[in-house]
Amino acid sequence: MKRFGCLVLILLLCSIALDRAGAQTAISPGQQLQETVEKVTAILTRLTDDSRNDARKQMRLLCDAVHERFSLAETARLSLAEHWDKRTDKEKTAFIALFGRFLENVYLPWADRYDGGQVVFVREKIKENRALVHVRVHHGMLRIPVTVRMHHTGGGQWMVYDVAALGISLVGNLRAQFNHIVKRHSYDKVIQIMEEKTSGHTGCSGFQ
Questions:
Q1: 3-state secondary structure 39-54
Q2: Does the pLDDT value for residue 25 go beyond 50?
Q3: SS3 of residue 24 by DSSP
């Protein structure tokens, strides 16, 4: 289940990327998300093709998709929670960059293990500049409820900042870990651990 949970998060974290033409015609966050699932599924399917002749190219496309529409700064801020406001502007900028590499190194290794699954859109709820998009991921006999949290950034664009699957929220899980480390040790310890986990890994930069 842990492996499948990672694959669900990859699919949905990556399916937030819209090409600009699609962004102009989509209206609701659910529609924007739905339009891109097929695009991202196609990338993941090509990555898992037996030939895999263009795996590097597909990973680059996947990275571009994530960074184009994933609200990294908002996810980082919410994950650090009460400890965010205590950071200087320089520390915040450094944290966001390190946080991005950390997420890449957690989820990218699972990308070439995608083995199918259908995303069924259930409903969406919009309140001001925030939205909840509820979907179900069908994988064999499994029916996994997933909630995607998005926020409006202007120009009709909706950005994903959290995904909850199998009862686990990306932000909630990271927030609990970071808070525990800061209170037991220090903020510097959080940075140290993240640097250790990303040491030697190039993440998306390795596909540029």
A1: HHHHHHHHHCCCCCCC
A2: no
A3: helix
Give the Cα separation of 185 and 175 in Å (integer): 15
Tell me which of 26 and 78 has the higher pLDDT: 78
Is residue 205 within a helix (H) or strand (E), and if so which, with residue range?
Answer: none
Q: Which pTM value belongs to this model? A: 0.79
Alpha helices in the chain (DSSP H): 2-14, 20-25, 29-47, 55-69, 72-80, 89-107, 170-184, 187-198
What does the block give as tokens for 60?
């680059």
CA atoms within 13 A on the CB side of 198: 23
Residue 115 contacts residue 133 (beta carbons within 8 Å): no
* Structural domains of the chain sorted by starting position, each given as residue range(s) with its CATH number in brackets: 2-200 (3.10.450.710)
What φ, ψ does residue 129 adopt, rounded to 5°? -105, 20
